[in-house]
Amino acid sequence: MVKVKTFSSSLKIFQVHNELVSLDKEVNDFLQANKTNKVVSVSDSNTNIDGGTMGIIRVLAYEE
């Protein structure tokens, strides 16, 4: 059965790299803790207001 999990992070100017590394770690920790068999898809989307990037949403589709 394919399941979907979302993760999000706000993005602050000059700290985007650290925030993306933190988001990667959160996803990897989730995968290890849930002993997933297969990652089907990973995608990122920016959230914004008035054209400015305010955050990122990462969607993970996986099989247990």
Q: Explain this structure to me?
A:
- It contains one helix and three strands.
- By secondary structure, the protein is an alpha+beta fold.
- A three-stranded antiparallel beta sheet has the order 1-3-2, with helices on one face.
- The longest helix has 18 residues, at 16-33.
- It is elongated, with a radius of gyration of 13 Å.
- 0% of the residues are buried.
- The mean pLDDT is 89.
Give the termini distance in whole angstroms: 7 Å
- Strands of the biggest beta sheet: in what spatial order? 1-3-2
Overall mean pLDDT:
89
Report the count of strand segments: 3
Q: What structural class do you assign from the helix and strand content?
A: alpha+beta
How many helices in DSSP terms?
1
Order of helices and strands: EHEE
Main beta sheet: strand number and arrangement? 3 strands, antiparallel
| Proportion of residues in β-strands | over 45%
Q: Helix amount, in percent?
A: 25-40%
Q: Using the CA coordinates, give the radius of gyration.
A: 13 Å
Q: What ranges have pLDDT less than 50 throughout 5 or more consecutive residues?
A: none
Task: Using the alpha-carbon principal axes, give the shape.
Answer: elongated
SSE map:
Layout: E1 2-10, H1 16-33, E2 38-49, E3 52-63
Short description:
The protein has one helix at 16-33; strands at residues 2-10, 38-49, 52-63.
